[in-house]
Give the backbone structure.
Amino acid sequence: MFKSLIQADKLYLRDAKAVFGHVFVGFLCLYIYCRILNRIKKAGMTAHLSPHGLLLKLSKAYAVRSGEERAITEVPEQVRKTAERPGQGVFP
């Protein structure tokens, strides 16, 4: 499961530190994936949403920073609907 979720199939590293770093980053990826999955389950949205699907939807909204100013680009309707569902608790 670990290899397929974060696509960590092949390891071509020869240095022990590089292997440790790779495994640690893989662990962090799996931890974040499970946290997102738990929030989706808690919101009761598992039939409609997966962690990969949620991240894909959210990747369509951007925050742009110019000096002191921060602006969010246009948020697609589907992302806005997912983020604004009352009482769902997907987003902190």
Remarks:
- Helices lie at 2-6, 16-42, 51-58, 77-83.
- The chain has two domains: 1-49, 50-84.
- The chain has a mean pLDDT of 76.
- The longest helix spans residues 16-42.
